[in-house]
Structures are given as structure tokens and as C-alpha cells.
Amino acid sequence: SDTNSAASPWYTWPIAKHSVGFWSLIEPDAGTERWIVLFANPIVWWGALFGVAAIVAAAIVRRAELARHRIALLFLAAGYALNFFPFAFIRRPMFLYHYFFALIFSVMLAATGVGVLAGWTDAGSESRWAFPSRRSSVLYSAVIGLATVAFLYFAPMSYGRPLRPASVLHRRWLLERHWGRPA
Questions:
Q1: Residue in 10, 17, 15 with CA at minimum distance from that of residue 85
Q2: Cβ neighbours of 172 (radius 10 Å)
């Protein structure tokens, strides 16, 4: 057969719709389950998607801040496109991990573009970590903090750490239902 239950179409990767289950172990005596599942950190993946959408919207209305960084933004956008869109022409089963290189470019594009729009790149500051406003600083810290919390929350499902069945189900709300018990 030329299919796999964990395979996914290329256009679903930016939203990380299809996770990939690699391994599971049910330990009835201990009352725990162990899983190794490839899935996305929602803050990073969806944040990159929203960040890129914000940059596209800003480019459509021709925000002046973007013009000064046009070359860098175009380079990152081209890197994303070259690492993502060729998968539209492949007809074999493909998986979420095929998106990793494009994901790196989307995160860099989102971070750079949102940083430009938020004023984080102004050359006039004495410090590399100076933010133009308290709101900007809070936004930056919140994104980093939320990404870290999401990583720590989902890490047991990525690294095969023992969890109670209720904890597995609690984490599974976000994970796509295509991953079942690996053979």
C-alpha cells in the first residue's frame, strides 16, 4: 500500500494538523503510559503562521518599516517558499517532519518581520535588548514564555516520559487524532 495513517498533505503542515506517533508503551502495573509523538509546539507553529500573516498584511498596506528590511524579508520568504511549495508536486506519502526546513524559515521570517513592525530593530538604542515600549517588551516576553511553557507541557509526549492516562488525554486535546498506537 502507498498510504500511511500518519501521512499528511503538504498544505496541512503549517497548522500541524497531523501528528506522527512513533512509539507507545502501556504500563498497567504502574498505571502509566509512555508515548513518543512528533507534533508541533502550537505557540511556535501557529505563532509563526500568524506572524507571517501580519507581515503579508503590512506589506499589502505598504508599511514603511518593512521597506528598509525588504532584502532580508524577501530572502526569508524565498527560503520558506523553496522549502515548502515543491512538496505540492510529490505524490508519495509525506509527513509533518518534511516541513521542518520551511518551519525554520517561517519562524525567522515571522520573528524578523514582527520585530521590524514592533520597532525592535531601531538602530538608535544603546542596548541590543531595548524595546521601544513596555507593551512591546511584554509581547516579546509573553511569546517566549508561552513557547517555553508549551514545550514543558508537551515534552513528556515527545520524550516517552511516563504519564497517567488522564494526563495523556489532557495533552492530546491539541494533537491530531491520526496518531494511534504505533505497531
A1: 10
A2: 16
20-30, pLDDT tens digit by residue? 888 989 999 99
The candidate with the shortest Cα–Cα distance to 102, out of 42, 45, 17, is 45
Considering only CA atoms, which of 108, 84, 80, 109 is closest in space to residue 98?
84
Distance CA 43, CA 151 (A): 9
Q: DSSP assignment, residue 33?
A: E
Name the phi and psi angles at 38, rounded to 5.
-90, 115
Digit-coded pLDDT (tens) for 137-174: 888 899 999 999 999 999 999 999 999 998 988 887 65
Grid coordinates belonging to 143 = 511569546
Nearest-angstrom CA–CA distance, 43 and 147: 5
Q: Are strands 20-27 and 32-38 parallel, antiparallel or unpaired?
A: antiparallel
Lowest average pLDDT, out of 105-114, 124-133, 172-181, goes to 172-181
CA 138/CA 144 separation, integer angstroms: 10
